[in-house]
Amino acid sequence: MPMSKDGAIVRPVRGKNSPQLGDYAVMAASESDLHMLCSQMNLQKNRFIKLFMSRLYVDDRQENFTLVGPFIGAPYAAMILETLIVWGARKILFFGWCGAVSPDVKIGDIIIPTGAIIDEGTSRHYGKDNGSLVRPSDYISGSIKEALRENGLSFYEGLIWSTDAVYRETCERVKYYQNKDVLAVDMELSALFTAGSFREVEVGGVLVVSDEISTGKHVAGFSKQCFKKSRGDVCEAISSICLKKTI
Questions:
Q1: How many helices (H) and strands (E) does the chain have?
Q2: Does residue 172 lie within any of the structural domains?
Q3: What's 127's domain CATH number?
Q4: Total count of domains within the chain
Q5: Residue 11 lies inside a defined structural domain of this protein
Q6: Which of 94, 98, 212, 222 is the most exposed place for a label (fewest CB within 10 A)?
Q7: What residue numbers bound the domain in which 113 lies?
Q8: CA dihedral (207, 202, 60, 88) positive or negative
Q9: Number of other CB atoms surrounding residue 44 within 10 Å
Q10: Is 11 exposed, middle or buried (0-12, 13-18, 19+ CB in 10 A)?
């Protein structure tokens, strides 16, 4: 069936009170990272616009960038992305956490995705099949890599597996994706890359490894200092991008 951009019955809209956003937007998946970014960007945490179940912060000083979060999962992430686009955003950077699939990456490592393999249900509604590989914007990826390097941070580059079912990451599936040279698993990236390409906007991402499943056993790192430090480092890099208008 041909994929139409204009045939949807329900669409994101600009209401009379909707903000006119600038080009740049940051989507922060976790609540704690959203708070950290607010502090580093000098945004007031209690001054936000409600967007579904998330909070949207606009930089009133220069109308330079927008910050939105928290959220989880491909369908909800795509809803937020669609709304940001209708409200004016054209360059979107996603910041989230991931689980290590490759034994080469560990808790606290930073990953710049070069592509995401679709194992979620949202992307097929934007014209992509399950198992397809979708790519981020080279422009957005280049911006975050440059910012990380300027801050003296090392990172991995590679493929991500995006799934809807965090509790169905079996040993068989981990081995399958290891054979495809996948570094880590998340829940949003492939849908964001797919929807962004469909709407002809720039979307990229940066991830921090929060846990490991590469050995077939779950190793949680949410309370580890290396994980917390890397998240803080990435937030600093993202803040420098936004405040310098270099996304």
A1: 6, 11
A2: yes
A3: 3.40.50.1580
A4: 1
A5: no
A6: 222
A7: 24-243
A8: negative
A9: 9
A10: exposed
